Amino acid sequence: MLAQSNTSRERTLAEVRQLAEVVEPSPLPQPVCRDPDDDAVLALAVAARVDLIVSGDGDLLSLGGFRGIPIITPAEAIAKISPIE
Fold first, then answer.
1. Residue 13 located in a structural domain
2. How far is CA 10 from the centre of its chain?
3. Of residues 45, 47, 53, 51, the one with CA closest to residue 25
4. Which of 15, 30, 55, 64 could be disulfide-bonded to 60 (CB atoms 3.0-4.6 Å)?
5. In this model, does residue 3 exceed pLDDT 60?
6. Which of 10, 13, 16, 53 has the alpha carbon at shortest distance from 33?
7. Is pLDDT larger for residue 6 or for residue 82?
8. Is 74 contained in some domain?
9. pLDDT exceeds cutoff 80 at 7
């Protein structure tokens, strides 16, 4: 894909770095999710002050939300952002 777009991996990464904000979350004080690896996602979401978490992961979705942050499926996210016709 990069070759077709006449760009390089380095240039693409440089552009992403200009647009991105690096967030280093603190670990959660206690486990929350039944899959401990998913606690990192929750910690990052809190630290980044996100509006919602979009995931297809059943362990995250089973929570429904975390600290006021809804956890929704991609289909639900598309429905939320799609204009009403």
1. no
2. 23
3. 47
4. 55
5. no
6. 53
7. 82
8. yes
9. no
Residues facing 53 on adjacent strands: 71
Which SS3 state, helix, strand or coil, does residue 53 take?
A: strand
| Residue 19 within a domain | no
Written as six digits, the tokens of 82 are 């799609």
Residues in CB range of 50: below 8 A, 6 or more apart: 69
Identify the three-state secondary structure at position 44: helix
Question: What single letter denotes the amino acid at residue 64?
Answer: G
**Total structural domains within the chain:** 1
Query: Model's pTM, two decimal places?
Result: 0.75
In a domain, 44, yes or no: yes
Query: CA-CA distance, 68 to 80, in Å (whole number)?
Result: 17
Alpha carbons 33 and 51: distance in angstroms, whole number: 19
On the question of pLDDT at 79 being above 60, the answer is: yes
Dihedral angle at the C-alpha atoms of 16, 40, 58, 54, nearest 10 degrees? -30
